[in-house]
User: Fold these one by one.
Assistant:
Number 1:
Amino acid sequence: MARIDLNGSSSLVTGGASGIGEASARQLAAAGSRVVIADLNEERGQAVASELGGLFVRCDVTSVEDADTAVAAASEMGPLRALVNSAGLGHPGRTINRDNEPMELKHFEFVIRVNLIGSFNVLSRAAAAMAKTEPLNDDGQRGAVVNMASVAAFDGQIGQAAYSASKGGIVGMTLPVARDLSAVGVRVNTIAPGLIDTPIYGEGEQSDAFKAHLGQSVLYPRRLGSGEELAFMVMELITNPYMNAEVIRVDGGIRMPPK
């Protein structure tokens, strides 16, 4: 059985304007897929899409209308074969603060809404489009979804209740969604990245020193991972026809301490 051939296909990448999403979009384009960058960062998203010969769609992942627009844009460029769900955010905060005041519920809800509900929203709309495409092979394969969780789903640190819960939800829905979509030949896998060098850490000398310090807690290699390294795994999960319903840590062996 050959790898999945993405030539002439379309792909949708949420959070594709930077970090892991951008790296994934670049590798998908290199594999011959037309990529839709779905992001809120219009300037950067337009630049990446233009460079890759793809299309930028401004997309709030929690909006059904925005998700449908992004999926439709991809489907117009070719059969939709891949979705990479990498849009996400965090809002650090303890369950109760040092004054014993509870975290405002709106902060917890916001992170769950974007990371978990947003992922399912785009996934369900994209899967519906994939289900309408012609099968790629004798197995009846039509497409693949890669969700982005985090090692925080397993090793959540102090102040990460909302983020860890959202990413734990993504881990928890991987198997049932893969079971749901097996009937239409769509595979679903999840990556749990460790400490990855993305724009979240900023730039400059101070940022570089902080990242070097963080990297010392990684088992091996003792550094932050790159978006490109995460995208290698994204491509494996999309193109290996036997990978399904799995959650894979890509973290250099790190196990996060309490803080």
Number 2:
Amino acid sequence: MFLKYHLPAILYATAILAVSCIPNLKTPEIRFLTKDKVAHFLEYAIFAFLTFRSFAHLGGRKRTGTVALLTLLLLAGFAVVDELLQGFIPGRHSDILDYAADLAGVSLVAIILWLIRRRQAGTY
């Protein structure tokens, strides 16, 4: 169970932090709808899927709303740490719009998965 549900989320989190620590990483110019923001959105959307799946299989029966909320809260905090970390890496900077794109990806996936699981459970 750990290898199937939890390890992918842990490895993905590790990969995000590893990439964030690369000095002078080249990214496109900062404007809200650039490839950089789409990349942030997708990166955290995938992370939200993996985290939601991990929380849903932590043991015991979890309410779907609880799983979605835990996913949103954990990844909102993780994204803050990720952005702050980048502020200490040479050639990198923190960006509130990157954080907004991260949070948008997490929110959309958490809501979609919450709705899907509610519908499957017949509580819709």
